[in-house]
Design brief:
single chain; 104 residues; mainly alpha; two-stranded antiparallel sheet; 5 helices; 2 strands; elongated
Length: 104
């Protein structure tokens, strides 16, 4: 039964998983459709191949990190960070990736 319920994002009450409007507070619920968002595997490939200049950060919408990666690319630090980020991206769940990078 736990997969047939969800929680309202506004009031936090348990509601039906198919509900479009919360019956408790009347808020229209947003569908969890991330098809037009960013893909974690694309970000991981960018981190692996072009991470030394921070391309994955620009793709993920973190422009400041991308600019800092470009500024410090000569040190090699962004390359090490991108390899760590590559692994983190691969082991993270789709839900956590979407929560962090696909906010609408």
């Amino acid at each position: 039964m736990s997969n047939q319920v969800k929680y309202c994002t506004e009031c936090g009450k348990e509601i039906s998983a198919q509900a479009v409007v919360c019956p408790n507070c009347g808020v229209q619920l947003k569908p969890l459709n991330f098809s037009s968002g960013k893909n974690k595997y694309v970000a991981a490939v960018l981190a692996f191949l072009l991470g030394s200049i921070g391309i994955q950060w620009f793709y993920l919408g973190r422009t400041l990190y991308g600019v800092l990666s470009i500024l410090f690319c000569w040190t090699g630090v962004p390359a090490v960070i991108s390899l760590i980020h590559f692994v983190i991206l691969l082991i993270s769940s789709e839900a956590s990736f979407n929560e962090k990078y696909n906010k609408f």
